[in-house]
Amino acid sequence: MGSTYNLVGLPERDRCLIMGVVNVTPDSFSDGGVWFEPRQAIERGLRLAEDGADIVDVGGESTRPGAQRVSRDEELRRIEPVVAELARSGVAVSVDTMRAEVAERAVAAGASLVNDVSGGLADPAMARLVADTGVGYVLMHWRGHSHEMQERAVYSDVVGEVRDELRQRMDAMVGEGVDPRQIVLDPGLGFAKRPEHGHNWALLAEIDQFYELGRPLLIAGSRKRFLGRLLAGADGEDRPAVERDDATVALTTLVADRGAWCVRVHEVRPNADAVRVAAAWRSGGDDLTEGRADVAERSGQ
Ligand code: PMM
């Protein structure tokens, strides 16, 4: 399973990893505003680690469809103290940013992973920063900023095009000095993918095609609109974001069984249970020694 990739500074487990989300933003689609103050965001991150997050992903810029960009200074103000305090507490931290300067400051503050939803396209300095620091790097499939991505969600073969575009981006990053072993790939569910066209489900159904690229996969479907659409009520309205957690857990179980390296989720505990169920399911019970001991260890229990 996902443990054999050995990304520097990140935990290794014989199961799919859990990345818990802390959005230090007033406007993220699923939890905007809830953890906006640094103190609340730090507490939330520590809580997610206790709940079983292997990595805590800290982001200061909303990427919901239609969102406008925040300034670099504001993004730094939001995330830097949160990254620093979580890292100091022993949490493996990932920084969700498209800006090389923000990534650089976050890595200096202790982040072990740069999670760039633009796959290096939003900031030409990102590749160099990743190469120079040697930090792990999530390269997501992306076709443009939030205000323009939905109109770019035009595909004749969504799986083939996303796979080829990920390969091109990976080649470009490696061409600028990034070691391929630093890279984690992400098909970018919800980013230039339209629920009404089934793009997200097509990518999930063909997840095996992404393993052909030879890198670990991060899947981030938590609370996304394609789940809301799937669970629409009789009135035709999408299920609201905060009521999509059970569906998220189901998705986690399925992608963990299909070998995903990590899932990025808002509600950690049930997903942490789900990846353990998937690991036991895959191994046929051969390796049940770990249990949740890793979580107890970290929280000093
Ligand atoms: N989605 C969001 C934010 N960051 N990072 C990665 N690697 N992949 C994603 O799909 C992704 C991401 C948007 O969701 P949120 O607003 O709930 O954080």
Automatic annotation (TrEMBL):
SUPFAM superfamilies: Dihydropteroate synthetase-like. One of its GO terms (biological process) is folic acid biosynthetic process. It catalyses: (7,8-dihydropterin-6-yl)methyl diphosphate + 4-aminobenzoate = 7,8-dihydropteroate + diphosphate. One of its GO terms (cellular component) is cytosol. Its EC number is 2.5.1.15. It comes from the Bacteria. Its cofactor is Mg(2+). Belongs to the DHPS family. Catalyzes the condensation of para-aminobenzoate (pABA) with 6-hydroxymethyl-7,8-dihydropterin diphosphate (DHPt-PP) to form 7,8-dihydropteroate (H2Pte), the immediate precursor of folate derivatives. This is Dihydropteroate synthase.
